[in-house]
Amino acid sequence: MNNRTVSMRTLIALIIGSTVGAGIFSIPQNIGSVAGPGAMLIGWTIAGVGMLAVAFVFHILARRKPHLDSGVYAYARVGLGDYVGFSSAWGYWLGSVIAQVGYATLFFSTLGHYVPIFSDDHPVVSAVAVSALTWLVFGVVARGVSQAAFLTTLTTIVKILPLLCFVIIVAFVGFSWEKFTIDFWATNGNVGSVFEQVQGIMVYTVWVFIGVEGASVYSRQARSRSDVGRATVIGFVAVLLLLVSISSLSFGVLTQQELAALPDNSMASVLEAVVGPWGAALISAGLCLSVLGAYVSWQMLCAEPLALMAMDGLIPRKIGAINSRGAAWMAQLISTIVIQLFIIVFFLNETTYVSMVQLATNLYLVPYLFSAIYLVMLATRGKGLTHPHAGSRFDDSGPEIPRQENQKHLLVGVVAAVYSVWLFYAAEPQYVLFGAIAMVPGLIPYVWTRLYRKEKVFNAFEWVVVTVVVVAAIAGIVSLVNGSLSL
Question: Does domain 8-424 have CATH number 1.20.1740.10?
Answer without folding.
Answer: yes
